[in-house]
Amino acid sequence: MDHRMELAFAYLEKNEHGMMELLKNLVSIEGPSSDREAIERLAAHLDTYCDALGMERQIHHFEKAGPTFAAWTTPQTTSPEKKPILLLGHMDTVHPVGKFGDDPFIVKGDRVYGPGVYDMKGGDVIALFVLRALNAVGYEDRQIKLVLTGDEEVAHAFSYGEAGKLVEQYASGCEAAFNLESGGANGEVTVRRQGGAIIRIKVTGKAAHAGKDPQKGASAILQAARMITEIEIRSKFGYLTFNCGRISGGSGANVIPDSCEFSIGLRYAANAQYEEAIAFLRDLCEHVTVPGTSCTMEQNGYYPAMEMIDGAGDLLSLYQKSCRLLGEPIPQGIQQGGCSDSAFATRIGIPALCSLGIQGGEAHSVDEYAIPSSLLVQCKKLVATILSM
């Protein structure tokens, strides 16, 4: 075993209690996606933390979204051919502040409970302690970048996609990306993820009295209903799916509705299928079948699909080798349906591994939990992988 690896492991073992303390601190600073100021407080806390590690930092602020926090090391001896490494995560969670009571962090046996403890405050802790361990052994082989977004749970809709663009910006030129998203129960590593987008379609018609002059109206709801039927039948599970999950419109049963809008959740296994879906929806909007109506569409959230690009297989093999070194089960590379920021890295050709975070379960529910004993081993796996690159 590499001497630096031994020292890094010893450092992590000595500071295992500190991991738990940091987890408690981060969970206690609640930050739902809709609460920009709460996520600002969390970013400020992380800024202080990374400053103590001697890292350069920048907080990217948005008008309606929580910030994206970025930090990076400034090694003195990095050679040009050794490209940077990117650590990814997010700070936002899904529950309103206060839903878990005055003390949101609860320890019960070998589990801890709280908002975002599994998705993904535990992963943020791992990323920070990986940085601490590498710093402790004087690692300067490659620059390490850390990027934590603030509106990941809403597909970066609140930042109008700008947070995703920042991930691509920091990923550009990197050797690899490691996302500390919530880990699998058996240590599985995610190498593929579906992409997702939220599309809102607005239909405009013409109002009229439904009893006296119905022929003078143009029903926006009728046009929307025809479109929804045609959209839903295009779904093919595992390939490209459309879910018309929300609809509103009209003003009363005695009025021909002059407006209707509905939202569609898209899921796609590859980015080419997203383009296919957008082309289909745009054509549908341009060719209405109810005379007197018209349609517009807009995108309210977007994630590319995380595809297994060149280099991802080698990266997975290196991570598996680190697990074998530690005597841990050899993780399989799997595909998941949920989206993550890893996809912004793979879209620009940077190989990535995802789901390297804390183990646990029940994400996004009031029963969400994490297994704190997994913090140490997950840290060791990633430290070993980076030192082996």
- Separate helix tally: 10
Unreliable stretches, pLDDT < 50, 5 or more residues? none
CATH superfamily descriptor of the largest domain: Zn peptidases
- Biggest β-sheet strands, sense, barrel: 6 strands, mixed
Number of domains: 2
Radius of gyration: 24 Å
Strand order within the widest beta sheet: 1-2-6-3-7-16
Q: Can you tell me the CATH class of the largest domain? A: Alpha Beta
Share in β-strands: 15-25%
End-to-end distance: 14 Å
Q: Structural class from helices and strands? A: alpha+beta
Mean pLDDT: 95
Q: Which architecture of the largest domain would the CATH scheme give at its second level?
A: 3-Layer(aba) Sandwich
Per CATH, what is the topology of the largest domain? Aminopeptidase
Shape: elongated
Order of helices and strands: HHHEEEEEHEHEEEEHEEEHEHEHEEEH
Tally the beta strands. 18
**Residues in helix, %:** 25-40%
Description:
With 389 residues, the protein is an alpha+beta fold. The protein folds into two domains: 3-193 and 305-388, Aminopeptidase; 195-303, Alpha-Beta Plaits (2-Layer Sandwich), CATH 3.30.70.360. It is 35% helix and 23% strand. The protein has a six-stranded mixed sheet with strand order 1-2-6-3-7-16, with helices on both faces. It has a four-stranded antiparallel sheet with strand order 4-5-18-17, covered by helices on one side. A hairpin with a 7-residue loop joins strand 1 and strand 2. Helix 1 packs antiparallel against helix 10, helix 4 (117-136) crosses helix 10 and helix 8 (312-325) crosses helix 10 (374-388). It starts with a helix and ends with a helix.
